[in-house]
Amino acid sequence: MSAKVFLDLHVLQTIPPNCLNRDDTGSPKTAMYGGVRRARVSSQAWKRAMRLHFNEEFDSSKLSIRTKCVFDLIAEEIVKKSPELSSEEAQKKAIDALTTVGLKASGKTPDEKKLDALFFISSQQVKNIAALACGEVTAKDVKAALKADNGVDLALFGRMVATDPSLNCEASAQVAHAISTHLIENEYDFYTAVDDYAKDLQEHAGAGMMGTIEYNSATLYRYATVAAHELYKQLNCESDALDKTIAVFTKAFVCSIPTGRQNTFAAHTMPDALLAAIRVDRPLNLVGAFEKPVKGEGLLSESASAFEKYAKSVYADFCSTPAVSYVVGNYFNDLGKRLSLDDLLTVIGSEVAMRCL
Predict the structure, then answer these.
(1) What pLDDT, on the 0 to 100 scale, is given for residue 39?
(2) pLDDT for residue 2 is more than 60
């Protein structure tokens, strides 16, 4: 067994006019890189899209939920176990259990009480704490229940608890902010809407409403990595579970897309190029290929060429080549074995799992 096994996923994806991820002013998120303004989609936005995709691939018992309403979830399980209890009694038991480990609640009555911050908890952890709450509860037992039986999404994306770092769950996956391979300038769509019910068209001539939406379009470089050796431990060293989780993570990263303003832009594209690399030394983000922004008409081909050239250079000068590499799409011809996405998803989990045994 190799001490470390990483799965690196590199994607080039062209996105037409969109506002997939916006800031507090409604503008598409951007970032400075290589001295120029780039389009950006935050890792948080894409991880949320990936987690929604997991719902299509995993049974809910294998997943987690991020919410302030953890007391409600636990109370529902308590009532299932002890139907003689009222909902208020169950809620109080749930609150008593979680407050033993310092999780803070606010609200006037038990039914109104919620955690002060979002909390990521697996379906099995909810059931385990509900079972504890029906008997004598100790902080030690609750803490142990919150550190065992992580859902696959919790194992991948982790949990941070400011009030008690011992409840943290270290993420085995990392997702980079997607950025454009080139300079972008945001544009503005001025729109108008007609009042369909206005009866006197002359009296109500003009728009019923108007406004502007800021947007851009870009060729994005997207990167994610999974520390498969850590994920394997979090999945209780079950190779079949690791195999499936790696395949689903890969599919979710490749196929998901954030939902921001999709009713307006319908920017539902798929990647144009994918490199899946299994490394046994360290993860390797290859965004440096685009430190010098790509220019020209038609940016995808130039971006792919820059990426391939940069990857070969880094492999030669700084890091070893990956143990195994696969490419999907019509680019990255010299960087790995070409497969269809379906074929990649069939083999990638077992290729990773084999190295973690």
Answers:
(1) 98
(2) no
Give first-to-last CA distance, the chain, whole Å: 6
Closest by alpha carbon to 58, among 231, 270, 247? 247
- The span from the CA of 22 to the CA of 215, in Å, is 9
> 274: closest CA among 212, 190, 343?
343
- Amino acid identity at 220: L
Taking residues 148-173, report their average pLDDT.
94
Asked if residue 77 lies in contact with residue 127, where contact means CB atoms within 8 angstroms, the answer is yes
Number of C-alpha atoms within 13 angstroms, CB side, residue 309?
9
Instruction: State the Cα–Cα distance between residues 348 and 12, nearest whole angstrom.
Output: 19
Spatial neighbors of 293 by CB under 8 A, at least 6 apart, are: 34, 36, 38, 181, 182, 183
Phi and psi angles of residue 87, each rounded to the nearest 5 degrees, phi first: -60, -35
Q: What is the pLDDT of residue 1?
A: 47
| Token digits of residue 267 | 């920017």
Q: Write down the pTM of the prediction.
A: 0.94
pLDDT tens-digit series, residues 78-110? 999 999 999 999 999 999 999 999 888 888 777
Instruction: Average the pLDDT over 52-63 and give the result.
Output: 95
Looking at the DSSP assignment, which residues form a beta bridge with residue 337?
A: 326
Tokens 């719902």 map to which residue? Answer: 55
Question: Coil, strand, or helix at residue 160?
Answer: coil
Pairwise CA distance, residues 54 & 58, whole Å: 6
Domain boundaries defined on the chain:
6-57+175-198+205-356, 66-150
Residue 220 has a CB neighbour count (10 Å cut-off) of 24
